[in-house]
User: Which sequence fits this backbone?
């Protein structure tokens, strides 16, 4: 008689987690923070076109310091908005430095 191994599937403790932990407070804090950052970025760009650093400062000012997005937040969101057709960017040179100025499209204003 052939016996099957006692444990065919790995134990839950030995399996690496895949995907987000929806029960984690850190997951929801991060999700809410990113969503609010996206909302405020759209809000400040609705007022006028600006480059990334100005976007970050305008969000901070608009929220009275409650939301202070970093470059690590601002630029990926602006790239996502540009890929989605919500903003367009145009390069300009100021004091010898090139920077992108972001402007909402009609889709971004909707």
Assistant:
């Amino acid at each position: 008689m052939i016996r099957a191994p006692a444990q065919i599937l790995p134990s839950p403790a030995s399996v690496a987690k895949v995907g987000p932990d929806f029960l984690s407070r850190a997951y929801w804090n991060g999700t809410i923070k990113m969503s609010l950052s996206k909302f405020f970025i759209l809000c400040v760009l609705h007022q006028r076109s600006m480059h990334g650093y100005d976007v970050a400062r305008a969000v901070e000012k608009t929220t009275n310091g409650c939301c202070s997005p970093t470059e690590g937040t601002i630029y990926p969101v602006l790239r996502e908005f540009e890929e989605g057709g919500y903003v367009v960017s145009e390069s300009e040179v100021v004091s010898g430095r090139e920077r992108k100025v972001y402007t909402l499209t009609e889709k971004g204003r909707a």
In short: The mean pLDDT is 86. Residues 25-47 form the longest helix (23 residues). Strands lie at 50-51, 87-94, 97-104.
